[in-house]
Design a protein that fits this description.
It is a single chain. This protein is of the alpha+beta class. The chain folds into two domains: 99 residues, Immunoglobulins (Immunoglobulin-like, Sandwich); 151 residues, Glutaredoxin, CATH 3.40.30. The protein is 16% helix and 29% strand. The protein is built from five helices and 16 strands. The strands form five sheets. The chain has a five-stranded mixed beta sheet with strand order 14-13-12-15-16, covered by helices on one side. It has a four-stranded antiparallel beta sheet with strand order 3-4-7-6, with no helix packed on it. It has a three-stranded antiparallel beta sheet with strand order 5-8-9. The longest helix has 17 residues.
Amino acid sequence: MRGREYKLFVNTRPPYRTGAIRSDVMLRTNIESQMEIFVSAYAIVPADFEMTPPTIPIPPILQDGEAASLPSIQILNFSNYGKKPIRVTGATCSDSTVNASVFEVIAGKQYRVTVELPPRYRAGGTDHFVTLITDDEAHRAIEIPIGQQAAQARHAQAAAPAATQPTQTAAGAKKKFPALELIGKAAPPIALTTLDGAPVGNPEFEFHPATVLNFFAANCPYCKRQIPKVEALRAKYESLGVRFVNVCETMRTPFTPDQVRGVMADLSANLEIAMDAGNRYGRSYHVTGFPVLFVVKPDGTIDHAVSGDKANLVQMIEEKLDALISEGAVAKSPAEDGPTSRPAS
């Protein structure tokens, strides 16, 4: 409709670099008060293959009880997104006490890697890796670090020091959503399981330099704009040990796990998903609109929260994660609000 409605078409030109691609489109108008309108465009280009999670976590040492004498089983997934099949033929470990095996899920495309750590396992100050053997000429051996120490040693230069990235604050900004009042407080108890069978709970926070909990609804339009930004963060920071979990809430219409998977696939997002039946944990985290994203420190303290789809979400969370990864610093700044959808009553 001339003068009333316009459609913006964004064309891309290959080849594309791996990871998140972001650009701003500027629209010019004849409105004196708004001569320029900026529209952010995002794209996620997956790597040829991906390990999920990219690091093998080391569980805490139990002092007594039957569980203390049992080995720890860690499950990883190898996914091949390229057009050429990659066959994983075996797995070895630089630590002889660790056993690794491979199960073929989809030939040339998807494999499940099982890693068995002995009871009370500790790396002993040495960086160890599980190595996948493939038939791909370019990637004959794929190394997966055991524990955060090995992962951070490999990616030490990937995160810039927080001191070089000052955080801008808005003094006196008004907090409009109850979830933002949790900043600086202990994260409420949460006990969920992802659709891939991994636990999501307060004890798991200590295994990661930061955990990102993103409460969303599958039918929330603001969430569908926000999730690609969270995926861009995951693509950059998951290899540094940061965990990203999307907690699915209900907004009017319930979604099945397969339907939620479909929504995430349409958004090209490879985030962990946990279903929050009845919005139980959404209520305990004071989530009254969607999306709401929390950054949780290893000690279980909520470092930051963002309510709604903020245009600068990626930059804002990058600053927080860089600080937590590089120096363990807590950058205190008011959370910011953006448009949200309302949950089910």
